[in-house]
Design goal:
Helix content is about 40%, strand content about 0%. The protein has four helices and no strands. Helix 1 packs antiparallel against helix 3. The chain starts with a helix and ends in a 69-residue tail after the last helix.
Length: about 160
Amino acid sequence: MFVIFSVFYILIAAAMIVLILMQRGAGADAGSGFGGGASATVFGARGSSTFMTRATGVLAALFFLLSLGMGIYLGRHGAPSDAANNDLGVMSGLANPPANKQNAQPKAPASGDVPQATAPAATPAATAPAANKSDVPAPQPAAKNDVPAPAPDKK
C-alpha cells in the first residue's frame, strides 16, 4: 500500500515540476494580453495560463493530501517492531566483536629490557608575586641631589 502511495507521490511531484517550468513569468503575460499572437495558441485565446494554473493547483492539492495521508499512515503503521530489528538474514550468524576499552593501559612488556619511568625531579617553588598586583610599577622617591631640568626659553 505504501509503495503505491510513494509511486503516485513521485509522479505528482514530477508533473508539478514540469507544469511549473512550462509556465510563463508574470512579465510575459503583459505583452500577450494586447493580442501579441495569443489567439493562435493550442489552449485558446486566453493562452495557457488558466489551464496550467488550474492543473498546478490541482496537483499541489493532491501532493499536499498525499503527504498528509502518508504521514498519518506511517505514524500508525510505520513503527518498527523488535522482530524486524533482530532479523538480519544472512548476517545474523555474525557476532559483533566487543569494542576495545578506551583509555586502557597497555600491558607490561614481557622482557625486562625496557626501563621503568622514574619520578620527575623536584622543581623549585615559584616565587610569589609582590603584594601589589598592578602592572604599573610603584613610584620611587626622588633622590635628594636630583634637580629638575630648566624650563625652555620662550621667545
